[in-house]
Write a structure and sequence with these properties.
Elements (H helix, E strand, L loop, with lengths): L2 E10 L2 E11 L4 E5 L6 H9 L6 E6 L2 E2 L10 E5 L10 H10 L9 H14 L15 H14 L4 E5 L7 H18 L2 E6 L2 H7 L2 E6 L2 E6 L1 H6 L4 H6 L3 E9 L2 E4 L2 E4 L6 E8 L3 E4 L8 E11 L2 E8 L5 E7 H7 L6 E6 L3 E4 L6
Parallel strand pairs: 3-8, 3-9, 6-7, 7-8
Antiparallel strand pairs: 1-2, 1-4, 4-5, 9-10, 11-12, 11-14, 12-13, 14-20, 15-19, 16-17, 16-19, 17-18
Helix pairs in contact: 2-3, 2-4, 3-4, 4-5
Bound molecules: adenosine-5'-triphosphate.
The site of adenosine-5'-triphosphate has 13 residues, from β2 and α1.
Length: about 350
């Protein structure tokens, strides 16, 4: 089922939490709403769900206007961070709940419910746990039950609000795989809220990046990472180094370094370079070589993160390289090196001088 969000505006009292949100979600897509705390992700999800009403705008499911439909008539499944399972019910009964409470006319028979629950238990690999109670499961297992419970009623749309937020990093990763697998299996249009960019980039077909109640950019993980449309998106998606300077005739001048910026307008600008988009050398090789001193070396498995201090401005830079390359170069703390951007994106500082 497709979702269209049209001109949605939401106020809490006089506070405007969402401003003119427009978004089209294709049937069967898995979409992540990603943004810092307070950017309006949960508000948007709740409006899609019908748990919250917007002041302005419409919500369409399969092009039909659902704006004023009650949550129970939208057939959406929910998984929340703290959407506790029923503590006094077994895992089996928790999953069966949504089917058992259906009005008699549309309620499946006992055998049918049983079969469905068993299938779901198999899918989330918890067959052996059906007679346990939620308190006898781990956090990750409980969220798998929550996913199975949400899917049991065959929702048109699955909405997840920080579903893995309360779990540790390793379990979160595992659950991402579950979400992706279950999503592919059921092909249900899914929207999940997260503030974890790695989670969004890893799981979603497309990522919606939100900030201060607005959408900054929508795109596939590759699009938003490789072609961020503004400084906010650049900064939000992974570690980035900033070079404040001035563009003159296709060159960004920063400190005593000149970097090629052929497509940039002249004026006060900031260059953005991701940590892995530097070349690190022991000799200068051009006007864009930034003389620096290694301040800190941090090894993280196959990747080495090096913090260097620019000699011209004393500003720190973060550079990432493979361990293999790091060993080849024989780098150590205190050594002088030259870092050069492989890929630079320049945004004009429109606010400069205002
Ligand atoms: N019921 C409410 N009453 C008043 N203000 C609210 C209410 N719900 C949310 N807000 C405010 O609206 C803004 C957006 O909140 P929302 O929960 O949608 O953001 P979020 O991006 O999901 O944040 P988080 O990641 O912290 O959950 C915040 O500033 C929040 O304080």
């Amino acid at each position: 089922m497709s979702i269209i969000v049209e001109n949605i505006t939401k106020y809490y009292g006089s506070y405007q939490a969402l401003t003119n949100i427009n978004l089209e979600i294709k049937s069967g897509e898995l979409i992540a709403l990603l943004g810092p705390s307070g950017s309006g992700k949960t508000s948007l999800l709740r409006i899609i769900a019908g748990l919250e009403q917007a002041e302005n705008g419409s919500i369409l499911f399969n092009e039909e206007n659902y704006t004023h439909k009650h949550v129970k008539d939208r057939n959406v499944g929910f998984v929340f961070q703290h959407y506790a399972l029923f503590r006094n019910m077994t895992i089996f009964d928790n999953i069966a709940y949504g089917l058992k409470v259906r009005p008699r006319k549309i309620r499946p028979g006992k055998k049918e419910i049983e079969q469905k629950v068993i299938e779901l238990l198999q899918l989330v690999k918890l067959e052996g746990y059906k007679d346990r109670y939620p308190s006898q499961l781990s956090g990750g297992q409980r969220q798998r039950v929550a996913l199975a419970r949400a899917l049991a009623v065959e929702p048109n749309i699955l909405l997840l609000d920080e579903p893995f937020g309360a779990l540790d990093a390793k379990v979160r990763k595992e659950l991402r795989r579950w979400l992706r697998r279950l999503h592919d299996e059921f092909n249900v249009t899914s929207v999940f809220v997260t503030h974890d960019q790695e989670e969004a980039m890893d799981v979603a077909d497309r990522v919606v990046i939100m900030n201060e109640g607005k959408i900054e950019q929508v795109g596939t993980p590759e699009e938003v990472y490789d072609h961020p449309i503004n400084p906010f998106v650049y900064d939000f998606l992974g570690s980035v180094n900033l070079f404040k300077g001035n563009v003159q005739q296709g060159k960004l001048v920063t400190g005593n370094v000149e970097m090629n910026a052929p497509d940039s307008e002249d004026g006060v600008s900031t260059g953005y370079v991701r940590a892995h988009n530097f070349i690190i050398e022991t000799e200068a090789s051009g006007k864009d070589s930034i003389a620096s001193i290694i301040d800190h070396i941090h090894t993280m498995g196959a990747i080495v993160r090096i913090e260097v201090i620019r000699e011209d401005t004393n500003e720190p830079l973060e550079v990432e390289l493979t361990k293999e390359h790091y060993i080849q170069l024989g780098l150590r703390k205190g050594a002088k090196v030259f870092v050069r951007p492989k890929e630079l994106k320049v945004f004009v500082d429109y606010m400069a001088g205002i």
